[in-house]
Design a protein that fits this description.
24% helix, Thiol Ester Dehydrase, Chain A, alpha+beta, single chain, 10 strands, two-stranded antiparallel sheet
Length: 140
């Protein structure tokens, strides 16, 4: 399967919680364990003065980090988050937002991930780190 096919397949299976944020996988690098996603967030996900609510910022970071691992490790069935830390650095306003995820380390059952979020003004708006349980597909 080509990279273009993998991107198309991943975007065809974007979960509804990311579809409502108009999320799509833009790029990934299997060898580096990275993924880049774009979201086009409307004002319905904002609180005061067009600022995206922090839970939605967290969703975007979590998605980018998860996709980095899913695109690198093809036998992963699920990736439940065990621990997640988010630091909010700048406001994230509605509009086109880029989230990047990176696999720091992945073992048989635990992974360590990092993420960053770029707001529509091009600023680093939030960073995250996560620990997740790697649930592998059962082999026949």
């Amino acid at each position: 399967m080509t990279k273009a096919d993998k991107l198309k397949n991943a975007n065809a299976h974007i979960p509804p919680c990311l579809q409502v944020l108009n999320g799509q996988l833009l790029d990934f690098d299997e060898a580096e364990g990275t993924a880049e996603m774009q979201f086009d967030v409307s004002e319905q996900f904002c609180h005061s003065i067009n600022v995206v609510q922090g839970g939605n910022v967290t969703v975007m970071l979590d998605a980018a980090m998860s996709h980095a691992l899913f695109m690198q490790q093809t036998d992963v069935a699920a990736l439940p988050t065990l621990e997640l830390k988010v630091s909010f650095l700048e406001p994230t306003l509605a509009g086109k937002i880029v989230a990047r995820g990176r696999v720091v380390k992945c073992g048989k059952s635990i992974s360590f991930l990092e993420g960053s979020l770029i707001n529509p003004a091009g600023q680093l708006a939030a960073v995250a780190s996560a620990t997740a349980k790697v649930v592998r597909q059962k082999r026949d």
